[in-house]
Amino acid sequence: MLDLNSTAFTNPITFFLMGIPGLEDLHIWISIPFCSMYIVALMGNILILFIIKTETVLHEPMFYFLSMLAITDLILSTSTLPKMLGVFWFNYHEISFHACLTQMFFIHAFSGVESGLLVAMALDRYVAICNPLRHSSILTNAVVAQVGMVALLRGLVLMTPHPFLVRRWPYCQSTVVSHTYCEHMAVVKLACADISINSLYSLAVIILIVGTDVTCISLSYVQILHTVFNLPSNDTRLKTLSTCGSHVCVILTFYIPALFSFLTHRFSKHIPRHTHILLANMYLLVPPMLNPIIYGVRTRQIRECVLQLFTTKIS
């Protein structure tokens, strides 16, 4: 059993990740789908990166953004799953204080990066459909690199205060984190101090990132739909809309679990804690698993390259 009490100190040596409270007896069974999703995410995103790197026909802005998304998904899933499986399989609950802060930073920072990349991909679709003749001149390789760098820096800069704020509080009651990973609010709630600054800053950052990004994506698709419905034929409209299908699916798989997890965590007191934690895990596992599948199935160029790759190896 984990000792819930500890002597007073500012920075503990270790935290203890409880896993999923109330479902400890099911940890082994829960780990099976989690591990399966992680393996699919690793294989799918590495395959996407390999294909985009080796196939020159895919050296276009949309696929450059997709490769950035794949790298982000690999970082997100790898920052949580190995330690989570250690808790589930080996009852290895300990995580050092600084490792906990590092995990917290990577999870929240690269969630912000992923949101920014979805905006960049919406921008690419907007230019490709609404201004196709200038697509290559507007979204040059340099511009794509700059947009990707802005998405990265924004996520890193906005999330950097989180571990520093967590580090300044005293932890004098418990070091047991009721979660499968070092989620920001789950750790901060252990502090014996007024944590309102953490809560307000976290809420402000989420509103800023999600509000700004969802607004930009929505405006892009309003313009896209306006352009599409002015096209002369139904076939052309459907063909043009189909090029956005993969991106729309990826947007939904990212924002719906994230918003649902966020809203239930902050505003619903009647949902059991293990449900909150399962939702938080789905938010970090499902998008990295589904993104390469969605793009592999719905994007003709990637689908053809994958089929060619495996056909060549078999023959």
From TrEMBL:
Membrane-topology annotation of the record: Multi-pass membrane protein
Residues covered by the G-protein coupled receptors family 1 profile domain: 44-295
Principal subcellular localisation of the protein: membrane
PROSITE patterns per UniProt: G_PROTEIN_RECEP_F1_1, G_PROTEIN_RECEP_F1_2
Residue spans crossing the bilayer: 26-51, 63-85, 105-126, 138-159, 200-222, 243-263, 275-294
Keywords on record: Cell membrane, G-protein coupled receptor, Membrane, Olfaction, Receptor, Sensory transduction, Transducer, Transmembrane, Transmembrane helix
Superkingdom of this protein's organism: Eukaryota
Gene Ontology cellular component terms for the protein in this record: plasma membrane
CDD domains referenced in this protein's UniProt entry, alphabetically: 7tmA_OR52R_52L-like (cd15951)
Classification via Pfam families: 7tm_4
GO molecular function, one term: G protein-coupled receptor activity
InterPro entries: GPCR_Rhodpsn, GPCR_Rhodpsn_7TM, Olfact_rcpt, OR51/52/56-like
Location(s), subcellular: Cell membrane; Membrane
Function text: Odorant receptor.
Family: Belongs to the G-protein coupled receptor 1 family.
Protein known as: Olfactory receptor
Biological source species: Ursus maritimus (Polar bear)
